Amino acid sequence: MTVRLDEQLGAVRGHFLSMQDHLVAQLRRLGDRRDPAQLVQDVQALDRQIDEAERAAVQGVLRLLALQAPVARDLRLTVLILQSTPDLERAGDYARHLSRTPDLTGPEGALALGDLTRMAATLRAASLPGDAALAAQVRALDARVDARFEAATAELIARPGGPDALSAAAWWRSAERLGDHLKNVAVRLETLYA
User: Fold this and answer.
1) DSSP state, 31?
2) How far, in Å, CA of 110 to CA of 11, rounded?
3) Low-confidence ranges of the chain (pLDDT < 50)
4) Inter-axis angle of helices 106-127 and 132-158, to 10 degrees?
5) HEC profile for 100-162?
6) What is the pLDDT of residue 3?
7) Which residue from 60, 173, 176, 186 could staple onto 135, CB 3.0 to 4.6 Å apart?
């Protein structure tokens, strides 16, 4: 019974980590603006892989809960994965939104994208061994993204509007929300592994 539980929990955790790997790949691809048409396709393909991994993770969690009845730390990890997969799925959606918006954010947008990429990679690193200190770093990076968002929003409000300003505001809002979803997962990891 324990071997079967470990195998099933390992498979569920693998899907959870796969979602994070695809998200990191999405964000890294967003930083490479060489071929904008291919960029959108690549980011959308990675988003579909995140969606598939989410479905597999949720199905695995439900099967695990129904057939294995995990307890203690295994149960906490199972619940963390069930609660966190929607955040990772939504973060992938926001990355897809970022790919569709022309880069009108200038150097600050590139810095925010770098912070988001570091957030996703740090979250992935925190997830595998279960490192609360790494998860705390994700929260610190989110504070930087939030500060960049607030400064960009203030600048957009201060300058005359237009279609570029509206697109830039949408980009910044997607970036800020993406960071918030990563932070949500990090807070859960901190709680589990503290």
Assistant:
1) T
2) 35
3) none
4) 160
5) HCCCCCHHHHHHHHHHHHHHHHHHHHHHCCCCHHHHHHHHHHHHHHHHHHHHHHHHHHHCCCC
6) 66
7) 186
**What phi and psi values does residue 102 have, to the nearest 5 degrees?**
-55, 150
Q: Locate tokens 């790949």: which residue? A: 25
For residues 101 and 174, is the Cβ–Cβ distance under 8 A?
yes
How much is the pLDDT for 32? 87
**Model confidence pLDDT, tens digit, residues 81-111:** 999 999 999 999 999 999 987 566 788 899 9
Q: How many CB atoms lie within 10 A of CB 60?
A: 22
Phi, psi of 101 (to 5 degrees): -95, 130
**pLDDT tens, residue by residue, 32-44:** 888 888 999 999 9
Angle value at C-alpha 75, between 69 and 81, nearest 5 degrees:
115
8 Å CB contact between 141 and 125? no
